[in-house]
Structures are given as C-alpha cells and as structure tokens.
Automatic annotation (TrEMBL):
Gene3D superfamilies: PucR C-terminal helix-turn-helix domain (1.10.10.2840). InterPro entries: CdaR-like_regulators (IPR051448), PucR_C-HTH_dom (IPR025736), PucR_C-HTH_sf (IPR042070), RsbRD_N_dom (IPR025751). Residues 15-102 form the RsbT co-antagonist protein RsbRD N-terminal domain. Signal peptide: none annotated. It comes from Pseudonocardia acidicola. This is PucR family transcriptional regulator.
Length: 333
C-alpha cells in the first residue's frame, strides 16, 4: 500500500498488480466483516503514523519540502482511501445479495418440506440465524402495504429482534422471533397494516404451517380492513373460504326459504346481531332498539321459515357460515 502511495507521489510507474492494491484491500475487509468506518480510519491512521515518522526523521530542508507537498500527498492518500471505500461497498453489496439469495432459498426449502425434514430445518435455522427451537410469529401483508410492512420490520430489527423478511405468493412475509411477552410489541408495530398474523409457531418446523394459516387469513380479510387479522377473529371467514360449496349451499337454503318474505332482511339482521353478540336476547334487543319479545318473535319466525334456530349453538354456526357465503343471497351479505 505504501509503495503504491510513494510511487504516485514520485510520479513513478505503477504496475497493474500494485494499482489494484486499494481494490483488494476494500474487498478483503468487506469479506472479513470489518466495518467501513474502521477501514477508512485505518487507512488514514496508518499513513498518519508514517507521515509523522517521516517528519521526525527529516532535516529542516526535507521537512520544509514535505510540508510544501503535503496537500498533493494527502490528495493521493484520500484517493487511495476512496478506492478502498468503493471496492468495500461494491463487495458488501454483492455479499448482501448473495446472503439474501441464500436465506430466501433455504426458507423456500423449509416451506417445501413442510418442516418435516430435520436436516432442512437445522440448515435453514443456521442460514436464517434463527433458533430451530424458537417461538415465532408469522405475518403476511398484501403488496400494497409493503412499504409500511418493511417499516415495521425495520422497527423490530432496530430493537435487535431476529426477523426474516421475504416476498411470497400473495404478499410479503415476516417471520419474527417473539416471546409471549413480546407479542404485544409485535401487534403494536403492525397495528395499522392490513396483514394476517398466524398463531405462534413453536419451533422453526412449525413455521410452514403458520405461513399457510396466515395466507388463509389474509385471503379472507375484508378489503377495507386496515388492521391485522388474527385466526381468533377470522376463523369463520377462513373456514368458509376453505369450504365454499358447503357455505354457499347453506346460504342458498336460507335464500330459498326467505325468497318471498318481505321482512327477510329484518330477520337476518336480528339473527346476525344475536349470533355476533353475546348470544343473549336482552343484548340483541338493546343493540336493535326494540323489545326483547320482538327479538324472540323474530328468531322464532326465522326458525319456522328456515328450520334454523340460532339459539342453538349448532344452528348458530350454520347460520354464520351461510352469512360468509361468497355472494349475496336475498339480502344475505
């Protein structure tokens, strides 16, 4: 390195091998994982030591000459440092891309084997730098929320949380290593993002299952939702999506029974309010601003017309499934 600098100062010929010293230093330090600030500081510090030693050994005339040429000398040193920096950044970018490609490939392998191959799970854990026996939350967001989703990832990584971010079919995916106590922070970071969060995966081998669940939740979320969807509040829509023929058959049955009933919408609204509330007549009457006997009469009329008595848990489940049908049916939405 010093020979390169001295030859340039003296205006001597610089061979090809010597001319590439700056590049090789930058590449080597990037591959060693040394920080760029340390690399830059070291390049300047090394020459500073030599410069001070030269001044100490020089006589009065030589020192005057060195000081006179100092701007040109330090310009050459700065150029050397800049070339190191450019090589470092270029190689770091290449290494990041290769590392990212490798992480994405092993995550795909983990999903492909469904977490059932211990060797793949362990290799994925090593590459992703996640513990194989860790606890994880898996979230998937639509692409139109990708910007805010990445911001949430950055907020978590800034806290030194272990995460993996990857594009998957249907959206962007985030795997977060999280304890039960940390789940609240995860929810806060994702609170204003339309995404789906699967139940906790206890081990990296359970992550593929969590990914499928999150994908199913995301597919069932309403388009106007602006907050995360969890399995506990989306399970009905998820189940209906998974069994569309059964759901539609239930909806068609209710539609046919209420086809010529003028107050069908009122009966449906009353039953829906009853089922989606706490299942009490008094609470339903309060929400609909009517007498409890009116609620009882409507529920009984719905039973007589359709055979579905939403006061019974099994019938209530059938009714809610029918309400989740993919197309409206006689006022049923």
């Amino acid at each position: 390195m010093f020979e390169l600098i001295w030859r340039r100062i003296a205006g001597l010929e610089v061979g090809k091998d010597l001319a590439e010293v700056s590049y090789r230093v930058g590449v080597r330090r990037a591959e060693q994982g040394v920080s760029l600030s340390e690399v830059q500081a070291a390049a300047n510090r090394d020459f500073q030591i030599v410069w001070e030693a030269m001044l100490a050994e020089a006589d009065e005339d030589e020192a005057a000459t060195l000081l006179h040429e100092a701007p040109a000398i330090w310009s050459i040193v700065d150029d050397h440092t800049q070339r190191i920096t450019e090589a470092y950044r270029r190689r770091s970018s290449e290494l990041d891309r290769l590392s990212g490609d490798r992480r994405r490939e092993w995550f795909r392998r983990l999903l492909k084997c469904n977490g059932e191959r211990p060797d793949v799970v362990q290799n994925a854990a090593d590459v992703l730098q996640l513990p194989a026996d860790g606890r994880f939350r898996v979230a998937i967001a639509h692409r139109d929320c990708a910007g805010r989703f990445r911001d949430a990832r950055d907020a978590l990584t800034a806290l030194r949380w272990s995460c993996h971010y990857q594009e998957v079919e249907g959206g962007d995916l985030l795997v977060i290593q999280s304890t039960l106590e940390q789940d609240k922070r995860v929810m806060n970071c994702l609170s204003e993002i339309r995404c789906a969060i699967a139940p906790a995966a206890h081990g990296l081998d359970e992550v593929p299952r969590a990914v499928r669940i999150a994908s199913d939740i995301l597919a069932a979320l309403p388009e106007d939702r602006d907050s995360p969807g969890l399995l506990e509040d989306a399970w009905l829509s998820v189940a209906a999506t998974q069994a569309p023929l059964v759901t539609q058959a239930l909806a068609d049955r209710i539609q046919c029974a209420l086809e010529n009933v003028q107050d069908a919408d009122v009966l449906i609204e009353t039953a829906r309010t009853f089922c989606e509330g706490d299942g009490t007549v008094s609470r339903t009457a309060s929400e609909l601003y009517c007498h409890r006997n009116t609620v009882l009469n409507r529920l009984e009329r719905l039973r007589s017309l359709t055979g579905i008595d939403v006061r019974r848990p099994r019938d209530a489940a059938s009714f809610l499934f029918a309400m989740s049908a993919g197309r409206p049916a006689g006022g049923i939405t």
